[in-house]
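Support request from a user on the community tier.

User writes: "When I paste my structure tokens into the form, the page sometimes reloads and wipes my input. The last time it worked, I copied everything first. Here is what I submitted, just in case something in the input itself triggers the reload:"
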């Protein structure tokens, strides 16, 4: 578990590092005990590292046009290679919903044992999730959720509201001794529900700090270019503020360029997701970036563990239930200079 902090008391494959919440649930999936030795609390055999029934897992995600999405694919591939009893059928990935539906239908026709799907658009892909489930292929829905719980057997993903809540609480604790503190927010795509959830969590956290006022908000596009352009606008409009929360470490690269170009160092910055570049900047501690809030791509490795357990009809060690949970929400830990070394192996490029 992360080291406790005053504020905690979402882009290696250390399941127990970044994917903190799933680690306790999936302990049976990573145990070194044999199937005979490792059982769920209710007596159901739990998945283990020891080879078991062969499982073919179909993996379908969006195009890896973002550092976090690329890390999702890498985590899935590397986790699957860990198991000699797992065969991974991975699609090319597409942001075109029709193309992704076609890829998933191909996997269904191949009769894979389990599907892991990170939909480009959860609403648009709900029907193909339902189609797989009705064909007897359990679906692990990764991150972007389908509209119907009937379209998946298990959902695993990050906590967007929790990201905002923990970012706001971290900033609040840093500024609680300062009167009339001012903060700004560099959000992601405003047409995404996840962006709204991150902002809501941030705003709710700031309600606990009456000395702090959010004075500006800009929405970027989760890209380096948009981060730089929108941050430049914020800096020009706000001559003085005390803290910035940036929703995404990829767009944060551009935001930091804008900060450097403006010659500003009079505020602290908190990022989001967990990029390696952010971890490195936090460790160096010679700029405005002081922390980032995790949205761990290790969730894809955890999804492979869950899919393998489903395919083998196994439970999860440490739980009384015979079945794996219907949902797993990962914790949005805050990484700063005090614990960055622990999380460095999980940083994505």
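"...and here is what came back when it finally went through:"
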């Amino acid at each position: 578990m992360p080291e406790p902090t005053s504020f905690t008391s979402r882009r290696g494959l250390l399941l127990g590092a970044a994917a903190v919440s799933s680690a306790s649930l999936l302990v049976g999936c990573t145990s070194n005990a044999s199937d005979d030795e490792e059982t769920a609390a209710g007596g159901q055999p739990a998945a283990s590292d020891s080879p078991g029934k062969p499982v073919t897992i179909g993996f379908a995600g969006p195009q890896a046009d973002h550092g976090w999405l690329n890390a999702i694919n890498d985590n899935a591939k590397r986790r699957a290679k860990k198991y000699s009893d797992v065969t991974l059928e991975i699609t090319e990935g597409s942001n075109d919903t029709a193309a992704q539906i076609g890829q998933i239908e191909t996997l269904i026709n191949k009769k894979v044992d389990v599907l892991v799907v990170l939909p480009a658009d959860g609403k648009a892909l709900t029907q193909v999730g339902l189609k797989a489930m009705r064909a007897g292929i359990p679906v692990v829905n990764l991150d972007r959720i389908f509209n119907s719980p009937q379209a998946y057997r298990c959902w695993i993903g990050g906590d967007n509201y929790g990201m905002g809540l923990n970012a706001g609480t971290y900033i609040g604790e840093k500024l609680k001794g300062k009167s009339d503190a001012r903060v700004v927010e560099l959000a992601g795509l405003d047409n995404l529900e996840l962006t709204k959830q991150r902002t809501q969590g941030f705003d709710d956290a700031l309600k606990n700090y009456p000395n702090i006022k959010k004075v500006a908000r800009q929405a970027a596009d989760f890209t380096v270019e948009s981060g730089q352009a929108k941050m430049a606008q914020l800096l020009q409009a706000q001559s003085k503020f005390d803290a910035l929360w940036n929703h995404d470490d990829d767009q944060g690269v551009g935001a930091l360029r804008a900060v450097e170009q403006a010659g500003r160092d009079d505020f602290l910055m908190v990022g989001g997701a967990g990029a390696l570049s952010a971890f490195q900047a936090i460790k160096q501690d010679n700029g405005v970036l002081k922390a980032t809030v995790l949205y761990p791509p290790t969730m894809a490795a955890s999804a492979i563990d869950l899919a393998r357990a489903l395919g083998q009809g196994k439970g999860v060690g440490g739980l009384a239930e015979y079945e794996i949970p219907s949902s797993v929400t990962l914790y949005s830990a805050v990484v700063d200079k005090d614990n960055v070394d622990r999380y460095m192996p999980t940083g994505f490029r």
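Agent notes: The reload is a front-end session timeout and is unrelated to the input. Residues 57 and 114 are 5 Å apart (CA to CA). Residues 1-25, 30-38 have pLDDT under 50 and may be disordered. Escalated to web team.
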